[in-house]
Amino acid sequence: MSAVDAPVGLAGRLGQSAVRPDGVAKTQGTFEFSGDLSADGFLWGATLRSPHPHARIVRIDLSGAWKIDGVQAVITAEDVPGRLTYGLISHDQPVFAHEVVRFVGEPVAAVAADHPDTCRRALEAIVVEYEVLTSLTDPEQAVDGSFPPIHPDGNVIRHQRIVRGDQTIEGPVVVEGTYELGMQDQAFLGLEAALAVPDPGGAGVELHIATQWLHEDRKQLAACLDLPEEQVRLVLGGVGGAFGAREDISLQVHSCLLALRTGRPVRMAYSRHESFLGHVHRHPCRVWMRHHADESGRLLRVEARFVFDGGAYASTSSAVLINGITHAQGPYHCDNATVDGWAVRTNNLPCGAMRGFGVVQACFAHEGQMDKLAAAIGVDPVEIRLRNAMRTGDHLITGQVVESVAPVERLIRELAELPLPTEPVGGHDHDPMRLPGGAGLTADPATIRRGIGWAISIKNLMYSEAFDDYSTARVRLADGVATVKFATAEVGQGFVTLAGQIARSVLGVGDVVLDRIDTHIGSAGSTSASRQTWMSGGAVDGACRLVRERLFEHLAAVHDLEPFQLAIDGSDVIDTVGTLRVSVAEATAGLEFDETFEHHHRPTEDLDEFGQGNCHTAFAFAAHRAVVDVDPELGLVKVVQVATVQDVGRALNPLSVTGQIEGGIAQGVGLAVMEEIILVDGHVRNASFTDYLLPTFLDMPDVVIGLVEEPEPQAPLGAKGVGEPPTVSSTPAVVAAIRDAIGKDLHRVPVRPTDIVFG
Amino acid sequence: MSVVVPTSLADALRAVADDPDAIVLAGGTDLMVEFNEGRRRPSSIVAVHRVPELSTWHHDPVAGTLRIGAGVTYDEIERDPIARWVPALSQAARTVGSPQIRHAATIGGNVGTASPAGDGLPVLAALDAVVELTHERGVRLVPFGDFMVGPKRTVRQPGELITAVTVPVLSGYQGYTKVGVRNAMVIATASVALVVRPGAVAIALGSVGPTIIRCHDAEALVSAHADFEACRVSDDVVHEAAELVRAAARPIDDHRSTAAYRRHAVGVLAARLLRRAFQ
What we know:
By secondary structure, chain A is of the alpha+beta class. Chain B has two domains: 2-168, Uridine Diphospho-n-acetylenolpyruvylglucosamine Reductase, domain 3 (2-Layer Sandwich), CATH 3.30.465.10; 174-277, Enolase-like, domain 1 (2-Layer Sandwich), CATH 3.30.390.50. Classes of the chains: A alpha+beta, B alpha+beta.
């Protein structure tokens, strides 16, 4: 039954493709994104940024800016009342650079003025004298200690080993490779924007902001502003995509400082160019791997070395590192491992969270290795993966037992059954747009070669390493209407849809009102790590169940029944052993039930010095098969099809799941063949959508989707997070397909035309 | 900043003559990017999108020419009837940006910006198009090959407005092909236009030098050795022509690609166009 033809009152429940409450507004262009916010008498804010990757600040002269009419505030590090630095894990990043700048784009000063043009002139009028220093841009120089520390915390953000099992096992079959990934941008369409509104008298501030985690922002913000957290209130502004880039502080502190300084609302909004400089990116990474296997291709030992370039500040690099190295074995059984991982500091752009969070890097390497292993023993890519497929109950190289549903073999077998494209190169209609090169009309069909590639992934869900991760929800049921309150950042993923589905399913209501998303309730944790369906879904579900218990208790008392006899049937409460049937609306007329619930996942542990410990919460798996057409002479690629089977636990909203999978594949295809921030000596060469290329419709393959629905026992709704896995293994599948088409060993993404032609 | 929005050609010419430093806005798909990124801060702008005389074209079947007004958009050039008369220009038009961009972008703007990566320009070069420059005092006609003298540099004089380009309407093969890292909506990393006339070919390259490059050696070779009657050319000639095309290119390394790749690519593209033309 589709949501459309479901009886009134049943539409939009769990398992149905309920319609997004914000869908019409977003489609028609009336949705208010954070960039659309304004307030009476607001000022514009703007940021002065470092032009150098590494330099000492000799002198800052603000007087020129103050002389410009309309300038209301000019602030630097001197004006930060509280903590001078912030950061998600360690507070190592200055609100404004103080004495030294460590990357191109680091904020040095900010201004507030009556017009964006006044801001621009004010920034131009600020004189900063720099003494340019030698830059650390090669992460290996941070690893080997050959470069003097560029930060008081040193150049190594974190080093962690994993040592498990027999360290002496060698061969008989050995394959080795070094893999590299360029810096990918999250490239959300809704640029960073915020509106900060000061309280009268400067006692506090209200910040409307597009972010991923309101409460974490508040914690860092309050410390920098030297205000009690209660005096700092955050409201979610409309978010146009996130993908990890909104986890860190960007313009939060600057906009609030300017608002408190001027006593007027301050609006800040980044341009696309500034956005590239103003948020963290996916870590460029170099991974060396050596796999030892027996003659049949079964893994005996994995050796690996990872170097993640964290850029100038730590952000989440230490967690990204742990994700990368703990997934080095991939979704395969392997008893022995020797892994060495580094996350280091350089004068490149800071890196942090992006969809896949370290596992993208690991998967690109281990899947390249699995194909090499298949070739070494003479089996196909499917067979090698089947022989090694991880199962529930297997150990990870951290010693952790995989208790999650781990249907790896089933994913592979079902993926093999999905149809391959039936059309020949260029399609039956010889449409040149379907060929590599597309609109450029470069291709001659006879020279095109087709390739097929496979990749499988394992991805941890939720936060790791002993973090007490939780989410809070409050549900009020009155007169047949449920009102749901949470601080879960809706970044486009559709939690606002799911929350309504949960409330309708548990409470039998038709109308669900979603309260404003803000900090007037406990934290929901971050919208990241594929965690909100599980965590905030669990919180809303828990709160709804508490409300339902209260309702049943009330009805049982009124009708002289036992509460456990009662159940929700459609939009009614019924007595399962008697005759009572009363609509929820009628049963709650004039009454109110109000409950708050916090969902915590089970605790995790830190890793010990050998990288052993139950550091992760749960896992999801995905399999991808890519079909590409390649023009070997020009090095151009058309990804024809990506087929995938994903382990989702339970598809609570099949349309949303499809959206996550297609979007994740688009991002994975982008990393495979075009998306890269190009840095030369710490300077960005392509900070615009003219030259940072994202896949267009013509670059996007047909996507064929299969879902494996084996409900996850640990998950409150049986559903696993679905956001990250599509991005993790789609990239290596595309690259494997290109290798298959041209017979060359490609070891770097994005694959460039030059790699195909001259590689 | 002042903005003048003339509604007739006479007013436009007056505006340009009155303020020789004014930037002419003719679609804005290049200029606004530069403006928004702060690379350019013009003090005055003459926006010509409301000048009706500029957005018309005229086909002269007797002379065998098509005069395309500078304000004609790439969206219109992409379609019939212009696509029928100058198919290579239509192919180039299809590679310009997105549909939204093509609705705004004009051929006059493309010519005026004179970027080596301008998509229409190799086709105009291969067609021996003539650029019409109009001043209040009169009109001068400049062959495209003499018009562009460097990256974003032309012979247009202060007070002159690009009012049209005139191209021949030919019956032989003509094609445009372009390499970018994306399958649409991408700046050319290398492009080639080929135009076949009775007994002669013209080959022009984009994005591989400071200006659009005509490959005179390759043209002479093919013109001498191709069988225009039977529409045949030998593989050897194609290979040799491709080498001459590569030799004519003067590419650079930048963030979009390498000189080596660009040089390689124009040879491949030229060979493919020759095979399409002579099959």
